[in-house]
Structure prediction request, 515 residues.
Amino acid sequence: RAAMKSLRFISAEAFVSNAELARRSLGSVAHNLFPLLFKASYLLEKGDVIHDLVESWPLADFNIGELLGGTVDYQQDLSHGTCSLCLAGCLTGLRDYVLSQASSYRKRLKVVDLTGIRDVEVPFCECKQTMGRWARTQLLAKLCLELLAHPQHVQRDAGAAGLSIDVLIDLYVTDRSYEPVTQALLKRCHCPLKIRCVAFRSDNLALQKFFYIIKLTDPSLLRKLEIVHNVRLEMEHLDLLLTSTRFPLLTSLTLPARTFNAQRFTPADEQMLSTIGEKMGEMRQLTELSLSFSVLTGRVQKLLSPLKTPLRMLDVSNCSLNHADMAYLANSCHASHLEALDLSGHNIPDLYPSTFFKLLSRSSPALRSLTLEDCNIRDSHIHMLILGLSSCQKLQEFKFLGNPLSSPALKSLFTFLCQLPMLKTVEFPVPRDCYPTDTTYPLDDASLCGYDHQKYQSVAEELRLILVQANREDVRASTPLFGSYDAAVHETNNELGAYLIKSFKETLEKFTTSL
Prediction:
């Protein structure tokens, strides 16, 4: 349902709808109306008006999350809108704010916060052209370098030399954007726009480049660090990173696949793991940890017990956990604080059913997101699963793709899920009876799409009707076969795909040479 607009907001829309009139009139607009005009311009995708508003910004702060969030005049939250036209107008307007001829004492802007933007799968803007986190990083770096090379900067007078604006941003760097971002960070002290990195994500980056750029970001300010996919960080590299660099404000840490491999641990590796745990324990703000696709068998306690603050989010999917690991999690201080838990890739019903349900019971007061993909949950386990989930009254998101469940079992589960009052998102598997009878689990890529699509649609419609009849149309149920939407991966998939092809080619060449 569309949010109500106040008369002030309707008037603001009328004002910004004529870009030329708005440009001529900005000088006589009251300063406290700029935020209202900015949101109205964003809603109407008036990139040129956004540019002019930012170029003339009269206030000391510019926080895009607050500007686009719900307000008295228009309660609709627009912070999930990453319209390329609007964001380009915003960032180029910031550059031109620095270059504008207004005397420096009239320029009050001190802090620009761009961290409140949320990338989503379906953009609401009519142009459907989005500017993701990687592109925002690239554009800001480019504009900073343009300012440094601009004649006005080179010949700056003593008065203008005092202009300094902190730009808070979540950086996303790959090999393709590494050079301009590195240069912008390296020359930050000379640029009026000071990039302040609050969150940093790196992908498809050589280790040497990663270690260099992470130092330039000023790690003392980092709150979130994501090292993913094609950054070949192993345990000794992580040990070096945590030993040489302090992250006092870090709240969230994501490590790439195969960072740990307990199958080949030596006594020295065991000691290194303990050191890493102690170093993470020094990060007293750390509450979110993602360790997916590492082999951690029997080592979870050694890694997590030094942490001083209970975790709110833990992803140990496909980490080959054993009973001792699950027992530690179930009895640890983390259990009762967990809001998000991912245990995908573990044969929970057969290996440690009672320990898992103890963990679920202890985490139920806080748990909001639970992911149990490829956990070999079968029809015979549905009653037990419903029993375990019944205490999770705050659950908002439940994902259980890849489990061999039949259509009747899914219907029983959906009937129960309707009773969870805060549930909003369900990701369910293609029913087992939609696949050929000889299909085995876990599903490989070749058989994943080989199901009866017509039968699946029929079952999906029945599941939707269960939600409708229970007045739970607010629940979004889907089957994303290849996993949930990842905005960062989606934005850079061409570069990452090219990297994988190159790596495969190099591997083949090495193999051929060895033969």
